[in-house]
Each structure stands twice: as structure tokens, then as C-alpha cells.
Amino acid sequence: MKPKQLFVERINDLLGSESRIFFDYINKPLLKTIRVNNLKISKKNLIKKLKRKGWKIEETGYDEGLIIKSKLFPGELGKALEHRLGYYYVQELASMMPPLVLQPKQDEIILDLCAAPGSKTTQMAMLMKNKGTIIANDVRIDRLKALVSNLERCGVMNTLVTRMNGIVLCKKLTKAKFFFDKILVDAPCSGEGTIRNDQTILRSWNINMIKGLAALQKKLILSAVECLKPQGTLVYSTCTLTPEENEMVIDFIIKNSNIEIEKVEIPLKTRPGIIEWQGKTFNKEIKKCLRIWPQDNNTEGFFIAKLKKIK
Questions:
Q1: Overall fold of domain 94-309
Q2: Where are the domains of the chain?
Q3: CATH classification code of 31-91
Q4: Catalytic-labelled residue, pool 114, 154, 170, 239
Q5: DSSP classification of residue 93
Q6: pLDDT tens by residue, 5-54
Q7: Exposed (0-12), middle (13-18) or buried (19+): which is 189, by Cβ within 10 Å?
Q8: How many CB atoms lie within 10 A of CB 280?
């Protein structure tokens, strides 16, 4: 599919002469990656099982992330017995990074505000060794069914599932003086970073959609900060590349709440957040945010910001 001209122009503005490499990459097949679910099996034992099936495995910079190098039949990765038993989760490598940045601990109470279908929820439960508490929320019933199914399949036992508008939920919890140690806002977005996996995204892509999503994202993150404990951590992430949904959202929350941005490192190549876009300048601290570009790691695109509530 030929990318829309405005999309091309915006990527050119972001990447300059490097945009040609970006467009080459979004037309390449995405690597088949899985995340070991060590609630049920060790990485060593899973690799043994998969190699017995004749699968070729390659490790990544993240301990629990694996690349399946073998050519598989369509749907084989999801239909495999090891997947149905919850030994692994089919998850793109860049998507595994936000929970690593959040670093949920065993004694903490965590809110996953936009949780379905559960890739990051199940990963956080794994990092917490099924201890502590996660509230996994989503507004859509069809997506909640997938979330519940994945939690059960992966053996997650420390998670409560709620169905509510995320903004309303945060307001109710704040009013009830129920506050969280850490919050993940993996926000609904335009999905530019996932075009490699779904080229149809370009059909619905338009600037008005981006503006509408950005308005929703600002409301979500602002309400989430309200129900975060002082000194608590919030990770905001999207699988898109638009500054309106990324840096501009973080610039908004800096101006409208008592938070600061923390610098983080992840086991992937990243670039700093941008601080200027189409004549607008942002807080210089936004450079601490992370941009993951498809051409840098042969992955999807992602944006991650780690925020700390200072009051």
C-alpha cells in the first residue's frame, strides 16, 4: 500500500533524509517474537521444548524475549501447544519495554489503565512473581474477553479486571482516596508504529483522528496522575510516532501537574524525545523520553515516558 502523502511528509519532517530507510523497514515482514512466561516455565526449558519442534530460536537483548527464526505456517505460533499452555506470549519486542521501564515490584499496587488484550499486564504479573496487586482496566467488553483469557492462560493470579472508562475510573478512585504505587498508561493511539504488522492502518490514518486521540490521551494521563501516590511512578507509552500523541502529551502533563520526567535505559537502541515540532517547542526535559524507531532495532515503533509524581 502506498503511504498517504501527508504521512510521508510528516515522517520526512521527523527523520529527514533517513525517512527512506524508515519506509523500507515498514514494508519488511515483522520478526516473529515471543516472551517467555516464567510464571510457568524457565527460558531454558522453553527453548528446549521449541527446539524439539524443530524451531530455530534466537535470543534478544531482553532476557525473556525470543525471536523465532523458523518459517512457520500461518497461525502456527498461536496454535502451538506451548502457547495454549501459557508458556509464552506472542508479543513484539518493543511492546515488552514499557513494563520494564515501570519496574513493578512484588509489594506494590499497580494500575494498568488500558490493559486489553493483556500483553503488558501478563508481563507485569510475571515481573511481580504473581504477588502484589494489579488492577487491569479496559472499556471495551470484546477486548476484556481477550484480556481475561490471556490472564487465565498465563497463570496470572494477582490481577483484578475492571471495565470502565479510564478517566471515570481514575476520578472515582481519587475521590475514594485510593492511590497507586505505579500506573501504566499504554494509551489508545493511531498505531503508526505497528504499520509493519498491519498495513491497513494507513487506510484510516488522518490528522483529525490524531487530534482526537491526543485529546483523549491528555485526559487519560491527567486523571491517572491524580490517583498516583506521591513519589509514585507513571509510565506513558504508545505504539505510534506522532509528536501530538507523544511529546505534546508529556509537555501538557508537565504544565498541568506536579510530575518530573525520569531518564531510563532499556535493552534496545532508542532516540530522545523531540522538543520541537511544526513551530512549537516543548520542555527540554522531554529529551529523557524514549523513541523506538523500526529501523533501529528491526521492531515496531514505540514511545515511552517515565514520570514521577513529586507532590
A1: Rossmann fold (3.40.50)
A2: 31-91, 94-309
A3: 3.30.70.1170
A4: 239
A5: T
A6: 999 999 999 999 999 999 999 999 999 999 999 999 999 999 999 999 99
A7: buried
A8: 12
